[in-house]
Amino acid sequence: MNCIIQGIQCIAPAHLNHLMALTEASGIEQSAEHAYRLLNARPHADIAAFCYEHQLDYGFVRPDQKLSDFGLVVMDMDSTLISIECIDEIADMFHIKPQVAAITEAAMRGEIDFCESLRRRVALLAGLEESALQRVYDERLQLNRGAVTMLDKLKRNGVKIMLVSGGFVFFTDRLKQRLDLDYARANTLEIVNGKLTGNLLGPILDAQGKADSLVCIRDELGLRPEQVIAMGDGANDLKMMAQAGVSIAYHAKPVVLAQASYALNFAGLDGLVNLFSN
């Protein structure tokens, strides 16, 4: 296996040398600005603790595994593709962000059923002007670091991109158009006379809905599970990630870290594409 080492800035030569010794690697290649490939590396019990201490991410990858081997990447939106939780920022426009954010956090940790948590949060938004959604998009929504690089490399390698969110169509549709994504799925807020009613339209896209969306597009494209990558940060992403051959926990909650193929705790979204040769 090759061991991919990534950081948020230049990696100290001493750290690379130590990791080479731990893994008994036969050589080293720089694969991106802050990413290196340790060749013919072996796992070692001390790697995880050393990397975490020095704010490095690592992953063992087959030498022959290329980005072009994949046909589909499915990713969460809030706190994964983008840096915010949209519903928390919408709530801030209504001066109830702490109440809503507390429910969001509990849901992402898996302590509250997602559907219940979403209904509770949306109900608190009843009466908010629709224009608040556009303000959140214009003023607060930002892509996470490395997003543009990741998306560009995926597209150059012929990989389809799907955004699937327990959040809202208002944001996923705009991001789909802006970033030229292939697919987007999310929930729809009910709006009457220019104001949020506190209700949702149609079935809630929850953890199972995310998984079903992945399987639907995967089958439509004629792909095998091992040709799909899924990435997320919260408990409601786990069923989706289980349907993909490769799962990536992005700056994720412990429950997600425990079940993912790879973890990106420090690197940006471009860390996904740095794992594989292209």
TrEMBL record:
Sorted UniProt keywords: Amino-acid biosynthesis, Hydrolase, Magnesium, Metal-binding, Serine biosynthesis
Catalysed reactions, semicolon-separated: O-phospho-D-serine + H2O = D-serine + phosphate; O-phospho-L-serine + H2O = L-serine + phosphate
Keyword Magnesium attached: yes
InterPro entries associated with the record: DUF4072, HAD-like_SerB, HAD-like_sf, HAD_sf, PSP
Enzyme class: hydrolase
Known pathway: Amino-acid biosynthesis; L-serine biosynthesis; L-serine from 3-phospho-D-glycerate: step 3/3
Keyword Cell membrane: no
Residue ranges constituting the DUF4072 domain according to the UniProt record: 4-47
This protein's name: Phosphoserine phosphatase
